[in-house]
Design brief:
Elements lengths: L2 E7 L5 H12 L4 E3 L8 E8 L6 H5 L3 E9 L1 E3 L8 E4 L7 H9 L3 E5 L8 E2 L2 E2 H6 L9 E14 L4 E8 L5 H11 L4 E11 L2 E2 L6 H10 L1 H4 L3 E2 L9 E5 L4 H5 L9 E4 L8 E5 L5 E7 L4 E6 L1
Helix pairs in contact: 1-6
Length: about 300
């Protein structure tokens, strides 16, 4: 299989578990995920198979959307409800408007201190490994971008609020919940997290590992319909088709010139990337236009 499949990761699985299980189901080794999703979280996990593994890094950099439920009045060592409680406080007096007004202050570019229970490395060791040893190390704040943040529901009788967040790569929603709690003069821990979107991959289109298994066993031909071709990730790019006589140059990643193309969508400006297809319409590479030539950016 070559392409990207939109997996609905269920709670309890790590992202690596999903990859390992898919390798067994599809009987192929070349599979990679596009960004870790915590074991307790669920939702969209695009998985790249075959030649599509070359875009794993590109998808990791894409914006993502989440739905989170936060519990007020409690702070844990993991910043979610799976951790050990380190502080509790009264949530009396906090109103819905307080939460909404506070959450708005986190929109845009903000600084986040990565949580100790994370996969980031310090001196070659993952932070969560140090945390399990009872160690706490200094972490430098990192800039992340919260593109949108909307408080969607409040249940003050149980001290909970829900929010929908769209954010940049590297954002920790657990930390966002924690920081909102601190900003409120209180405390908060993430109770539930669902990733609803990664780039063009939406939760309503995702399928579970169980569904993949059933199709692989009973309707393998139908399974192909769930793999998105790599070139669909670059829907804003112009396309070009190489002449048969120059397909070898394309296959070797050589420089290309305008006379080598059989057809091209619109005029391409210097600095623009284009999708290049062979004579049979098969996507082969991304090329970037220089002044008089096209240089390979990434081969597929």
């Amino acid at each position: 299989m070559d392409g990207i499949i939109n997996i609905y990761k269920e709670p309890g699985f790590t992202s690596h578990d999903v990859v390992a299980k898919l390798r067994g189901i599809l009987h192929q080794k070349k599979i990679g995920h596009t960004g870790t999703l915590d074991p307790g979280a669920s939702g969209v996990l695009p998985v790249c198979c075959g030649k599509a593994t070359k875009v794993c890094g590109l998808l990791t950099d894409k914006d993502k959307s989440y739905h989170a439920i936060c519990q007020l009045g409690i702070e844990t060592d993991t910043q979610d409800m799976s951790g050990s409680v380190i502080r509790q406080c009264s949530r009396t007096g906090i109103t819905e408007q307080d939460i909404i007004k506070c959450a708005r202050q986190f929109k845009g570019r903000i600084m986040q201190v990565p949580p100790m229970y994370s996969a980031l490395k310090v001196n070659g060791k993952k932070l969560y490994e140090l945390a399990r040893e009872g160690k706490v190390v200094d972490r430098k704040p990192r800039e992340v971008t919260i593109n949108s943040l909307e408080v969607t529901d409040t249940d003050l009788s149980h001290g909970r609020f829900s929010m929908d967040v769209t954010c940049s790569k590297g954002t920790y929603i657990r930390t966002l919940c924690h920081d909102i709690g601190i900003k409120l003069g209180n405390a908060a821990a993430m109770e539930k997290l669902v990733r609803t979107r990664v780039s063009v991959f939406k939760i309503e289109d995702a399928i579970t590992l169980g569904e993949v298994q059933m199709m692989a066993e009973n309707q393998p031909e139908k399974l192909k319909d769930y793999f998105m071709p790599v070139d669909m990730l670059f829907s804003g790019y112009k396309k070009a088709w190489i002449k048969p006589a120059f397909e070898k140059s394309l296959a070797n990643g050589n420089k290309l010139y305008s006379n080598m193309f059989d057809k091209m969508e619109e005029d391409v400006k210097p600095g623009e990337n284009i999708l290049v297809y062979n004579g049979n319409g098969i996507f082969k590479a991304i090329y970037k236009k220089e002044e008089r030539e096209y240089k390979v950016n990434k081969m597929f």
